[in-house]
Amino acid sequence: MNDAVAVCVAAAALALIASAVRRVEPGTGRLLSAALSLWIVFLIVRGAAYLKNGMTVALPDKVGQLLPYVFRCAGIGLVSQTAADICTDSGEVSAGSKIRVAGKLGMLTVCLPLIKNILDTALGLING
Hints:
This protein is mainly α and 128 residues long. 94% of the residues lie in helices and 0% in strands. It has a domain at 59-127.
């Protein structure tokens, strides 16, 4: 918890610095902004690896079955949201919204085997 708060505060401070630098030196400000984005993505990946290791120890049976779906969905969500934000920031709001829809459909597609298992279980319970 404390690490997440520290990272959020540091990221907000760096974003403000990048914004201030961008007003004076547009090229350097963009470079700082890109470096900040890469740093945050690195922290997200590191946190995901930590989460995976912790869940594997705590829930060894279920994690092996469910964790790949969770991380694929999270990855699709992260990539599609980032791409949509880039489009929106560039003025292409329509393209950004379509990328979000494509990301949601991609996540749904990844989860189809889980949905099938849930429906099979529900039908098995109903039919007894």
